[in-house]
Amino acid sequence: ILSAWQMFNDFGADGGPAAKELAPKLDLTKAHLSSRLGMALPNIEVKQVVWAIVALKGLGGLLFVIGNIFGAYLLAFYLVVVTPILYDFYNYGPKDRQYSLLLTEFLQSIALLGALLFFIGMKNSTTSSKRNLKKRTPKPKAA
Fold this sequence. Notes:
The structure is a single chain. The protein has five helices and no strands. The model has no long low-confidence stretch (mean pLDDT 82).
């Protein structure tokens, strides 16, 4: 929630520091995907991507804190989409300083995704067990 708030405050007219960091990585990802798919992808405004990130992190974080499963789904979607773009350790060699920093951040994001999936699983299992308890009717005792 705090990082979303900081991104919101730093946004400015050009998208802020988040847009400056994201722009080259987004262009690289777009070029890679268009070469793999064999077709040109539409132009993506970096400011809109930053707004989407702020919305996913902010709304997902608030809903997650109050225990809503939809917030966990929003945060998981954010991590699945943004983590490979932001932490592109695969574009560096193992001896580069940037490689170890990005790999560490990538692994932390994957750990957070695992925790969110655990939360989603636990929330779903408790919801289904509550439904099963309501469906059961007590059997009348035979006299």
